[in-house]
């Protein structure tokens, strides 16, 4: 009788131990996957280039030489930032040149500013954000960090706002909403209804600075 009791006791003890050990393993796996890995996703490697990737707002339409957005962000931050802008780019066309203009240049941080031309050419938002998500995935696959820069997707309402926020959260990237806020609609900061002048690009660079420094700290 004592032997049976002892066996049952030892069996129960073993089961409790196994359950506890299993729970600990699951917790450690959960912590590693959802916390450790997600934190590292947007922490850039020590070596590599900072690349500003986007459309005419990145290339610098409306700015004088040396006063485009990447150049001003570079001067204000003290970091060298390469200009990967291409006038007229949609998220789809940017995705097509991503390998050549970004991934082959050893990026450690890519600042992505796209979506304005998608809105102007009436690309469906689902398509726009699918392509933006793929751009981010390809950059992160190279172990580079991403700073996502948003634009408005409308005049009276902004269907892009929630989509940008959801994308940044899902991909675990830093995000700056509506980069043209406080710039567009101000004649003293614009060269045309869409493109800033030197002063306007300077304001945009100021908005990028805190997030840029936080990622690179």
UniProtKB/TrEMBL annotation:
Residues that span the membrane, as ranges: 14-34
Stretches assigned to the SGNH hydrolase-type esterase domain: 52-201
SUPFAM superfamilies, per the entry: SGNH hydrolase
Superkingdom of origin organism: Bacteria
Gene3D superfamilies tied to this protein: SGNH hydrolase
UniProt keyword list: Membrane, Transmembrane, Transmembrane helix
InterPro entries: Ester_Hydrolysis_Enzymes (IPR051532), SGNH_hydro (IPR013830), SGNH_hydro_sf (IPR036514)
Any one Gene Ontology molecular-function term assigned to this protein's record: phosphatidylcholine lysophospholipase activity
Pfam entry (one): Lipase_GDSL_2
Name used for this protein in its record: SGNH hydrolase-type esterase domain-containing protein
């Amino acid at each position: 009788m004592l032997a049976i009791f002892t066996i049952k006791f030892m069996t129960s003890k073993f089961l409790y131990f196994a359950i506890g050990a299993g729970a600990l393993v699951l917790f450690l796996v959960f912590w590693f996957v959802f916390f450790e890995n997600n934190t590292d996703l947007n922490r850039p490697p020590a070596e590599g280039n900072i690349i500003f990737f986007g459309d005419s707002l990145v290339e610098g339409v409306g700015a004088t030489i040396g006063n485009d957005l990447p150049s001003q962000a570079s001067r204000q931050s003290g970091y060298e930032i390469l200009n990967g802008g291409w006038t007229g780019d949609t998220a789809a066309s940017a995705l097509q040149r991503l390998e050549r203009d970004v991934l082959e240049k050893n990026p450690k941080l890519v600042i992505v500013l796209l979506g304005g031309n998608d809105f102007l050419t009436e690309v469906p938002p689902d398509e726009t954000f699918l392509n933006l998500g793929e751009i981010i995935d390809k950059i992160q696959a190279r172990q580079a960090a991403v700073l996502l820069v948003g634009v408005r997707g409308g005049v009276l309402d902004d269907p892009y706002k929630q989509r940008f926020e959801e994308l940044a959260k899902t991909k675990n990237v830093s995000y700056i909403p509506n980069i043209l806020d406080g710039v567009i609609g101000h004649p003293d900061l614009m060269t045309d209804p869409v493109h800033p002048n030197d002063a306007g690009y300077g304001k945009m660079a100021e908005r990028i600075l805190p997030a840029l420094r936080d990622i690179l700290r």
